[in-house]
Amino acid sequence: MIKVSHLKKSVDGNKKQVLRDINTEFAQGELIGIVGPSGSGKSMLLRCLALREPWDSGDYIWNEDKLIQGGGKGTYKLRSRFAYLEQNPSLYPERTALKNVLIGQVGQVSAIRRFTGMVRSDDYMGAMDELEKFGLLDKAHVKAGKLSGGEKQRVAICRALVHGAKFIAADEPTMGLDPKSAERVMETLGQLCKTQKTTIVTALPIELAEKYCTRIWGIHSGELKLDIVGRRLTSGEKRLIDLA
């Protein structure tokens, strides 16, 4: 069980509160969609859950591991479990999909490994296995700059898994994609939750959250207003978070 207690987050020297006393619990293997208007705090919540931002206050517990107590930064030794996927994944455009999976996220690998791409054979096979699972085996040796938006998103997911992620926070992973590509990305996320018990929290348009997610969080003005399991939102619930 993953538990978030009294998460608060401010920016601009604590002048602007972005997240206001967020409290929630969720289990491994859930696919949770976050919905809410622009500026409501969705992206910051994802970054905090993925240990990409220090918390002003609050506790973060993953099973028996206390990641954050009373605010601050997450425990560094556990950070590899957490991946944060931006709207436009940071890939090396001149390197292949396979190399991008192997050498990790931009700015997070050593200079030698980044530029030589040196890897162990078991790393190589693990990366190829992930690419195959998500229909990208034929793109393994294609440069990332030539991939479609949906393919780049799936490469970023493969990269996170190869590097040990058990929790993925994805910030609007379908933005700018055509309907078919968006559907493929959402199916990929759902498959991860079901088969590998990966926990995924993602900001989405409400129609995709209702179609694919097992749970929906509604956020407005930095507050978690809704936590709905297994159904669509009512008209009243949509109005509550200004999405009606």
UniProtKB/TrEMBL annotation:
SMART domains reported in the protein's UniProt record: AAA (SM00382)
Alphabetized UniProt keyword annotations: ATP-binding, Cell membrane, Membrane, Nucleotide-binding, Translocase, Transport
The residues covered by the ABC transporter domain are: 2-241
Keyword Magnesium, does the record have it? no
From the Swiss-Prot or TrEMBL record, what is one GO molecular function term? ATP binding
Q: Which residues form the signal peptide?
A: none
Report which superkingdom the organism of origin falls in: Bacteria
Recorded hits in InterPro entries, A to Z, give: AAA+_ATPase, ABC_transporter-like_ATP-bd, ABC_transporter-like_CS, MetN_ABC_transporter-like, P-loop_NTPase
Coiled-coil region(s): none
Q: Does Cell membrane appear among the keywords? A: yes
Question: One Pfam family, short name please?
Answer: ABC_tran
What is the designated name of this protein? Phosphonates import ATP-binding protein PhnC
Record the organism.
Answer: Paenibacillus aceti
> What gene does this protein come from?
phnC
